Amino acid sequence: MDPIQEWKNKKADTYLTKKKFLTNLKRHKISKSLDSEADRAHDKVFSKVDCLKCANCCTSIPPIVNKTDTNRIAKHLGMKVSEFQEAYLIQDEDGDTVMNVSPCRFLQSDNACSIYEVRPKACRAYPHTNRHEFSKNINLHIQNINYCPAVFHIVEHLRTIEG
């Protein structure tokens, strides 16, 4: 079965199981072997998941945009930083600077990003499941199970090997 469709079919039924698993991981000492296994799962899952068939992150999660991102994107678009900020950014309830609309204005009809080469750091790193970042982002993964089929499948893999 297509991993994106499988996620759509199962996410509601298995969310609590995966949330409980991740919450328990957070409570216990997280080992480096978990991050290593998450890296392997990340590579395996992303060999099957085509983000351009999903783009759910771009349609539902406004990314954090830092100052470096703002400067780089504004320059790419040929805008003044202040113009870019006014046109595209807001401060969210957590005080983070984020894109002001969802879906992202840079998401094209084919799910490609029109500013891909200069996209925000948050977009580059999403879903934060590789490069030994998994254990640092457990709270994000709890949320992202509902947004990203790759996170869903990575957590499922870890859950099956951790018992």
Folded structure, characterized:
The chain is mainly α and 163 residues long. It has two domains: 92 residues, no CATH class; 57 residues, no CATH class. Helices cover 58% and strands 4% of the residues. It contains nine helices and two strands; from the N terminus they run ααααααββααα. It has a two-stranded antiparallel ribbon with strand order 1-2. β1 and β2 form a beta hairpin. The two termini are 24 Å apart. The model has no long low-confidence stretch (mean pLDDT 93).
Q: Find the structural class using helix and strand composition.
A: mainly alpha
Helix content: 55-70%
Task: Say how many strands there are.
Answer: 2
List low-pLDDT spans.
Answer: none
Radius of gyration: 17 Å
With helices defined by DSSP (H or I, 4 residues minimum), what is the helix count? 9
Side-by-side strand order of the widest sheet: 1-2
The whole-number mean of residue pLDDT values reads 93
What percent strand? under 5%
Major sheet characteristics: 2 strands, antiparallel
Listing every helix as H and every strand as E from the N terminus to the C terminus, the arrangement reads HHHHHHEEHHH
What distance separates the N and C termini?
A: 24 Å
Number of domains: 2
Shape: globular
